[in-house]
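Worked problem 6 (solution included).
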Amino acid sequence: MGSLVKFSSAQLDEIVAGVKISGVRCLWVGRDDTCRLQVVLNDLGLAVPWCDQLKVLSHSSIGGFLTHCGWNSTLEAAFVGVPMLAFPIFGDQFTVSKQVVEDWMEIKQGYKSEREELIKRAKQVEDIFQVAIAKVLMLSSRISHIEHIQDIFIESMKL
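Solution. The predicted structure is:
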């Protein structure tokens, strides 16, 4: 949860208990607490002292990110499009959290409706192309049939 702030042992135990109860598999970067975290998480997750956060967030198996809303973490998660669960601790993290939860969500909702409209239009274009292709194939079949009749006619003229 950031480089400057550490949770008390009781706070950390509560958060880990919540993660455990959720049953969600996780990767937990715990700095000094990795051994204790790994014992508690057991096979539900992996606790490590450090990771390349951007690489981890970019992985297709990542479904969400519990973040303290430090600016760099927030930008990395937003960059790769990972949903964030905001957990600010102090300072500007509360402002960043508000921005993520309230302001960016409005943008995402607008983007979502625009995206849905584009998907709808793309489906309409796809339907039009499918009808056009079907007509071309039918026409091609008729031309082929006409060419076949023409070949029969030419062969019969040779007799």
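Discussion: The chain has a mean pLDDT of 81.
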